Amino acid sequence: MTTIQFTLAASQQVSLKIYDSRGRYVKTLVNGVRESGTYSIAWHAVQEDGQLVPSGVYYAILQGENQRRVRKLLLLK
To answer: What is the pLDDT of residues 9-20, one digit of tens each?
Structure first.
């Protein structure tokens, strides 16, 4: 499990998605309106269909109305 933290300065529509190192979609962790504040979202290394993902490099992409942040994740089992 890994925890991804982010802070929003204002209420907005956001999405937080995980992609593998080849750019393939893995899972959506957040998709909706969030109020301003700090959030901690857990990813349990599973795909959208519930299957565990292998060790490797993944990217967490946070997309908001006025921001886009990418965080590199290294999953070791």
So the answer is: 999 999 999 999
